[in-house]
Amino acid sequence: MLKVLLKKQMTEVFRGYFYNRKTNKARSKANQIVLFSLFAFLMIGVLGGSFTAVALGVCFGLTSAGMGWLYFVLMSGIAVVLGAFGSVFNTYSGLYLPKDNDLLLSMPIPVRTIIVSRLLNVYLLGAMYSGVVMLPTLIVYWVIVGAAIQNVICGIVLFLIITIIVLILSCLLGWIVAKISLKLKNKSFIVVLIALSCIGGYYFIYFKAQIWIRELVANASVYGTNVKDSAYGLYLFGRIGEGDLIATAIFAAATTLLLALTIFILSRGFLKLATSTASVGKVKYHEKTVKEKSVFGALLTKEFARFTTSPNYMLNCGLGVLLLPVLSVFLLIKGADILTMLTTALGDRTNLAALLLCAALMLASTMNDMATPSVSLEGKNIWIPQSMPVEAKTVLKAKTAMQLILTLIPMLFAVICAAVVLQASVAEKLMICVLPLIFTVFSAVFGCYIGVMHPIIDWKAEIIPIKQSGAVAISLFGGWGFVALFALPYLLIGQIIGLVPYLIFWAVIYTTASALLYRRLITKGAEAFSRL
């Protein structure tokens, strides 16, 4: 039974590799081999290769300085962080609050078997993530220092200790996430905030890692002495990789005890957490007058509700809502310096810096494409707006208006910041403010039209129309293409006609295109929507 449950757990984790989410049918063996090969390439080739490069950059310098233990402390810390955070959400959804809890608990399966199968699932995934770091770490050390039997044995034990630490941390963090999720009514914004924080933290660490590593290697003796004096336990931990049998025995015993304690605590509280439901607060009724909304207002409210209750929708189609304010603040802080640097580098082509700023604002607006999948997201419920006494064009107007509101407001702030930092004439500042706003309108209308003409209604998973549809690809890459179409010709004819006439020309082009597309949206687009 344990083998069956573990197979079920792993199949759920890699379900997308076995089944096509669009058709919900099993993939062919050849397709599965290709997908798993690609996954192996990404994990071993890309991630493993990256950490191999890091290990090579650190190992030689630290081992030459007699600080091999510090090398293992550093790389083990990276492995623990990657392993724990890589598997924490799987722990939350696969260990504590999976959807099949009630089904499995109602069957004649011992609870301990369910717990062990899920713990093994968490352990294997954590070991996979931490192994991407630790295997290159150990191999690089054995190649540079030597693969003595004692070093190899202690290195393998170190890897096992790290996988157990990852398992314990994953159980703890997953339990915290599960408890918090039971208290939250609307989890969408929390999920989006966590995802954006992880993305931001990743890029921050990525860009700072090389600086930190160089500083660590250059001052290895200083940092090593400080760690050894203030945190002797970390020194002993690092000594495991260098083949210290006493340190290996101490930490192996300690992690074994912690694992036993974790399993004991988990078995005592598993049933309570697994059968918990989200808390529902008591609501006292208060009579109040509800303000009647217009048809358009009601539809617009519905679109906003759909957007704000879907983390996938917000993360994949609404990054511009966050990107534009960040860009605005960045312009106020560093914009003048960057524009001065560009102007100096471009020489006599001073207007090119202003054009690049305008193109950057237009490009940022394309990161909002929520109108494009909005028709497809109606899914099987598309009959509801079609059955109401509402014109199809009004429905499409509401979908377009949602993107306009969420993009025009931050864009207005961004163009004002651009005008403040830009050293140019009043006419140039005015056009650089106006053109991105016009392009934002064009992008929204274009995206909604493409979405209604190429919908995916019979999707099985919400992510398909949001991220995997042809309409979204056309809207996103088409937006980038329109920005390139605007910027590149200036290199040939811009200096001849001047920046202001050039911007006016494109403002007229995009205004006319927006009007024509809008007309087609409320006619041909409305007819297409009615036929869905």
Describe the overall structure:
- This protein is mainly α and 532 residues long.
- It is built from 22 helices and 2 strands.
- Strands 1-2 form a two-stranded antiparallel sheet.
- The chain starts with a helix and ends with a helix.
- 34% of the residues are buried.
Classify the helix fraction into a percent range.
Answer: over 70%
Please state the CA-atom Rg, rounded to the nearest Å. 28 Å
Number of strands: 2
Order of helical and strand elements:
HHEEHHHHHHHHHHHHHHHHHHHH
Q: Give the averaged pLDDT, no decimals.
A: 81
What does the oligomeric state look like here? single chain
Q: Decide which structural class fits the backbone.
A: mainly alpha
Query: Low-confidence runs (pLDDT<50, min 5 residues)?
Result: none
Please count the helical segments.
22
Termini Cα gap: 47 Å
Percent of residues in beta strands?
A: under 5%
Major sheet: arrangement of strands: 1-2
For the biggest sheet, the summary is: 2 strands, antiparallel
Shape: globular
Task: Describe what is shown at a glance.
This protein has about 525 residues and is an all-alpha fold.
Give short descriptive properties of this protein:
two-stranded antiparallel ribbon; 532 residues; 2 strands; 1% strand; mainly alpha
Question: Mind sketching the topology for me?
Answer:
Blueprint: H1 2-13, H2 15-18, E1 19-20, E2 25-26, H3 29-64, H4 68-96, H5 101-105, H6 111-144, H7 149-183, H8 188-218, H9 220-230, H10 232-241, H11 245-274, H12 295-308, H13 311-317, H14 319-346, H15 351-365, H16 383-387, H17 392-421, H18 426-453, H19 463-467, H20 470-487, H21 490-497, H22 499-531
Antiparallel strand pairs: 1-2
